[in-house]
Design a protein that fits this description.
single chain, 129 residues, alpha+beta, 3-stranded antiparallel β-sheet, two-stranded antiparallel sheet, 4 helices, binds zinc ion
C-alpha cells in the first residue's frame, strides 16, 4: 500500500500544479490549447501535454482521474479509461479514494495527505502558494 500511496501523492502534486495553469482563465479563449504537466509518477517526467480547457475539465470531473502522456501508465496501480490524441486519462483504484479526494484541489477537505501533496507540488513549481 505504501508504494500506491507514494505514487498517488506524486500524481496529486502534479494535479495541484496543473490547477494553477487552469486558473489562468484569460489564456483559455477560443478553445486554444495550453500546456499542462504530465501527471504521471515517473520522476523526473515533467513533460507537457497539450490540452484545451474542456479536455482538462473532463479529466477533473472525477478525483480518481489523471492525465498522462501515452504509455506513462503504471499498469499495476492505474487503469487507462480514455485514450485521446496525445494523452491518456487514467483512473486510480478506489482503495486510494480518500487520498485522492483529500488532495483534490477542488475539494474543500484538508489533512496530512493534502499537506504532503501541497509540499510536493511546491517542489514541482516553487511559485505555488
Ligand atoms: Zn509522464
Amino acid at each position: 500500500m505504501d508504494r500506491a500511496r507514494d505514487v498517488g501523492l506524486i500524481e496529486a502534486a502534479f494535479r495541484i500544479a496543473n490547477e494553477r495553469t487552469a486558473r489562468w482563465e484569460e489564456r483559455h479563449a477560443d478553445g486554444r490549447t495550453e500546456l499542462y504537466l504530465c501527471e504521471c509518477a515517473e520522476q523526473p517526467c515533467r513533460k507537457r501535454i497539450e490540452l484545451t480547457r474542456e479536455q482538462y475539465e473532463e479529466v477533473r470531473t472525477d478525483p480518481r482521474h489523471f492525465v498522462v502522456l501515452p504509455g506513462h501508465v503504471i499498469a499495476d496501480l492505474e487503469t487507462v479509461v480514455g485514450s485521446f490524441d496525445g494523452y491518456e486519462m487514467i483512473e486510480k483504484p478506489s482503495a486510494l479514494l480518500q487520498l485522492l479526494v483529500e488532495t483534490d484541489p477542488r475539494s474543500a477537505t484538508s489533512g496530512p495527505e493534502a499537506d504532503a501533496a501541497r509540499a510536493l507540488a511546491h517542489e514541482i513549481d516553487p511559485n505555488l502558494a
